[in-house]
Design the sequence.
């Protein structure tokens, strides 16, 4: 069985917006494995989660959440991002959004 997931391609935005982007870090990783409250998502991720639910796809891949930030995980995972996007059931691209604080729905 192939796992279906949606991948999100978006812009974090300028530093003054990107600081609000929810991220998985070494510290937040254990909690994120258990639960990530919808209300903690930035608007662009909330919209992607809403789209995934509407499409009845259970999993959503978001770089800020699926790659542990501030570690060497980025060095290992970033070269695989092309595969992540190409194997997704759907890839949501948000070219009209210039910030993680902008939704697209």
Sequence:
């Amino acid at each position: 069985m192939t796992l279906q997931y949606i991948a999100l391609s978006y812009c974090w935005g300028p530093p003054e917006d990107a600081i609000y982007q929810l991220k998985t870090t070494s510290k937040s990783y254990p909690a994120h494995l258990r639960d990530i409250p919808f209300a903690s998502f930035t608007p662009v991720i909330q919209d992607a989660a809403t789209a995934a639910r509407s499409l009845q796809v259970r999993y959503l891949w978001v770089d800020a959440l699926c790659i542990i930030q501030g570690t060497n995980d980025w060095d290992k995972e970033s070269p695989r991002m092309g595969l992540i996007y190409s194997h997704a059931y759907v890839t949501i691209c948000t070219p009209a959004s210039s910030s993680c604080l902008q939704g697209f729905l």
Notes: The mean pLDDT is 93. The longest strand covers residues 5-9.
